[in-house]
Write a structure and sequence with these properties.
This protein is α/β, with parallel strands linked by helices. It has helices at 19-40, 46-77, 103-133, 138-158, 166-179, 182-211, 217-242, 248-251, 265-270, 297-301, 313-316, 332-340, 363-375; strands at residues 4-10, 13-18, 82-88, 91-96, 253-254, 259-260, 281-285, 291-296, 318-319, 324-326, 347-350, 357-361. The active site is at residue 68.
C-alpha cells in the first residue's frame, strides 16, 4: 500500500503504517482530550485529558495491530507466509505471500480478526466496570469504556459481508465453499463491497443535506475508501482468473539491467535515459551481484541536486525486504496477491536455491501477458 512508513517488525514480519492512521490517531486524541472527557468531567486539570487522550489513541492503534497479528498467526499456522502488515483507517491489511488454499482456511484467517477485536472489547468493558467499582477517576473509566466500545464497533464493522472487510473474506469463503470457484467468490465479495461503499456515500451526503452540517462527510469518505478497495480487489480477481496455471517465469523479463549499490545518484542519472539505464526501476546489487533492493527514478529524483554526487543508491533504494520477491516456479496468482498492496510495483524474481536475481516482473509485463492470454484464451 502506497503512502506508508515502516513502524517495525513483529516475528520477522514488517509492520507498516498508512498516513490515514496518523489522522485517526490525532482525531482520537483531540476528540477525547478536547471534547468528550472535558464535557463529561470538567473539573480535572487539562493535562489529565490530554495524557488520557494520547494513551487511548496509542492503545487503540495497538488494538488494530493485535487484530492484524491475529490474522498473521492463523495464516502461518495454516502454512501461509505473511509478507507484511499495514495499518490503515479501516483497521489493517495482512498481505499474504500466497492465496488461501481452501474455503476453510479463508474462513479461519478472516474470522479471527473480528473475533480478536470482540474479545478486546469485552476485556476493556470488564476493566471499565472493575475500575468503576473501585471508584477510579471518572475520566479513566470513560477512557477504558471508550476503548471497549470502539473495539466492539470495529469487530461489528469488519464483520459486514463486503470486501475488503473481513466480512467480505467470510462471504468469499462461504461462496467458494458452495460454488468451488475462488475467483467467482472474490468477484461477488467485491461487488458487495462496492454496493456497501455506495450506501455509505449516499448516507453521508444525505446526512449533510438533511442536517446542514458536514457530520456525514466522514461516512462518505469511508464509503469512498471501500469502493476503491473493493474495485481493486475485483480487478485482482479478474487477473487471477486469466493467469490461472501461469508461472512467474512465463511472464518475467529475464536478465534485467542491474545497478551497483555503490553507484552515486549523479552517476546513475548520467547513464539515463538514453544510456545504460532506459527503464524507471532497477534492481540494486552488491559487490557479489546479490540483489539488495530496488531503485526507481522517483526515489532518485527526491535527492537534492547538491547531494547527488555524494549519495549512493543504497541510501535511497527500497531495501530488499520491502520489495515484492518471487521464485520462477511460483504461480502468478500468488505474486499478484502480494503485489496488490506493495509500495513498489515491481517483483524481483530470485532463484529458489541461490537467491540470485533471474528476472523482474513489471506492470508492463503483467499487462502484456494479460493481453496475450485474453486474446488466446479460447485456444488454451
Amino acid at each position: 500500500m502506497k503512502g506508508t512508513f515502516t513502524l517495525g517488525r513483529i516475528a520477522g514480519v514488517r509492520v507498516a503504517v498508512h498516513w490515514s492512521v496518523v489522522v485517526i490517531f490525532l482525531l482520537v486524541t483531540v476528540t477525547l482530550a478536547g471534547g468528550r472527557l472535558v464535557r463529561l468531567y470538567p473539573d480535572y486539570p487539562t493535562a489529565v485529558y490530554w495524557v488520557l487522550g494520547l494513551l487511548v489513541a496509542v492503545v487503540f492503534v495497538a488494538s488494530i495491530l493485535a487484530h492484524e497479528v491475529a490474522h498473521a498467526i492463523v495464516a502461518r499456522r495454516n502454512g501461509i507466509e505473511v509478507e507484511d502488515m499495514t495499518l490503515w483507517m479501516l483497521g489493517g491489511v495482512a498481505r499474504l505471500r500466497s492465496e488461501t488454499p481452501s474455503p476453510g482456511v479463508e474462513l479461519r484467517v478472516a474470522g479471527v480478526g473480528p473475533l480478536t477485536s470482540a474479545v478486546l472489547g469485552v476485556l476493556f468493558a470488564a476493566s471499565a466496570v472493575w475500575l468503576d467499582v473501585l471508584a477510579a477517576p471518572g475520566p479513566l473509566v470513560e477512557a477504558v469504556a471508550w476503548l471497549a466500545a470502539i473495539n466492539i464497533l470495529l469487530a461489528l464493522f469488519n464483520s459486514i459481508p463486503a470486501a475488503p472487510l473481513d466480512g467480505g473474506r467470510l462471504l468469499r469463503a462461504v461462496v467458494w465453499k458452495f460454488t468451488g470457484d475462488p475467483v467467482r467468490s472474490t468477484v461477488i465479495a467485491a461487488a458487495a463491497g462496492r454496493g456497501f461503499g455506495w450506501l455509505l456515500v449516499a448516507y453521508g451526503f444525505l446526512s449533510i443535506l438533511v442536517t446542514g452540517t458536514f457530520a456525514g462527510l466522514w461516512m462518505a469518505l469511508i464509503g469512498g475508501f471501500l469502493i476503491a478497495a473493493a474495485t481493486a480487489e475485483g480487478r485482482q480477481a479478474q487477473l487471477r482468473g486469466v493467469f490461472a496455471g501461469i508461472r512467474t517465469r512465463d511472464i518475467m523479463t529475464r536478465h534485467p539491467v542491474t545497478v551497483p549499490a555503490t553507484t552515486t545518484v549523479e552517476q546513475f542519472l548520467a547513464g539515463a535515459p538514453f544510456g545504460q539505464y532506459r527503464h524507471t526501476a532497477f534492481p540494486v546489487v552488491d559487490a557479489e551481484e546479490s540483489p539488495v533492493g530496488l531503485v526507481t527514478v522517483a526515489r532518485v529524483d527526491r535527492v537534492p541536486v547538491p547531494q547527488r554526487g555524494s549519495t549512493s543508491l543504497a541510501a535511497v533504494m527500497a531495501p530488499i525486504d520491502e520489495v515484492t520477491t518471487a521464485f520462477p516456479d511460483e504461480p502468478v496468482t500468488d505474486v499478484l496477491s502480494r503485489l496488490a498492496g506493495a509500495g513498489e510495483s515491481r517483483v524481483l524474481v530470485l532463484d529458489r536455491e541461490s537467491h540470485a536475481l533471474v528476472g523482474i516482473v513489471s506492470q508492463t509485463d503483467i499487462s502484456r501477458a494479460f493481453t496475450w492470454l485474453t486474446a488466446t484464451r479460447d485456444r488454451r
